[in-house]
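Regression check, LMY7XDAE case 303:
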Amino acid sequence: MPGLRPDWNRGGVIREDGAMTAQILDGKATAAAIKSDLTARVAALKEKGVTPGLGTILVGDDPGSQKYVAGKHRDCAQVGIASIQRELPGTATQEEIEAVVRELNEDPACTGYIVQLPLPKGIDENRVLELMDPDKDADGLHPMNLGRLVLNEPAPLPCTPNGVLTLLRRYGVEIKGAEVVVVGRGVTIGRPMPLLLTRRSENATVTQCHTGTRDLSAHLKRADIIVAAAGSAHLIRAEDVKPGAAVLDVGVSRSAEGKIVGDVHPDVAEVAGFISPNPGGVGPMTRAQLLVNVVEAAERSVG
Ligand SMILES: Nc1nc2c(c(=O)[nH]1)N[C@@H](CN(C=O)c1ccc(C(=O)N[C@@H](CCC(=O)O)C(=O)O)cc1)CN2
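Current build output:
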């Protein structure tokens, strides 16, 4: 960044006016680099006669989910992965959704797929996920793949947690031995994030906080790394953050105008050493890691 020089002691940068500000963990740029690498790998697969194909199942008309799924298919087009899109109305029954899952399980053009979450109220999400062919699970959220992760066996890694890890590594944030606080316990990030961080290869110490946590602030103040995935607008305030900490803003709330509001208050940038913007941070990384899972599965299929 022109005019900015890094303060290597805490990872932040000093602005032209002399004030400290956090170094941006740029998810958009990092995702672009990953996609560029994948483009070459997809071309190599095609030379061997294999075209990876990502399927998506979108149920209902939630504007956020529609945007995310559209982004996933845009990314596919960029790297040469084929797209298979299935959309059902918000009134679809459990049986209708499961029929589409069975169809994609059988479709040879679909080498991996996802069910966009959340599903509408009244649908048994776990039953839908369990019905997926675990070998086609591009999200790493099938119970068998989550179980493999627990058992330290090879498995597709859940996209958002893996995106968080990739961003931290790319910017040289020390994970080994770090005190990490994960805020949230949802299936896409909160639950699997600690599983990834506590593998021997990462060796972080993780505290998981949630709505039942008595003193969130006390936990946050000790953290070297905060992964905020609560979906609670501006929950993380500057006074809760240790100077120099890395703060990853995953949570999404919407303002009255439909704009994204993250879990992290903008003032945190004045205290943190590293911060991921929202949008432009973990979101694009989630999409990039999804493509990584699709390409890796296709590569495994050719040995
Ligand atoms: N099956 C899944 N469902 C959901 C997952 C998931 O990993 N698998 N995670 C979230 C949503 N998500 C993935 O689908 C997701 C979130 C955000 C983005 C993204 O690109 N965000 C952009 C902003 C887009 C906008 O303007 O709204 C950004 O952050 O820059 C992509 C995917 C829940 N469901």
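Comparison notes: The longest strand covers residues 53-59. Residues 64, 67-68, 71, 114-117, 139, 159-160, 188, 260, 278-280, 283-284, 286-287 surround LMY7XDAE (CB under 6 Å). No diff flagged against the previous build.
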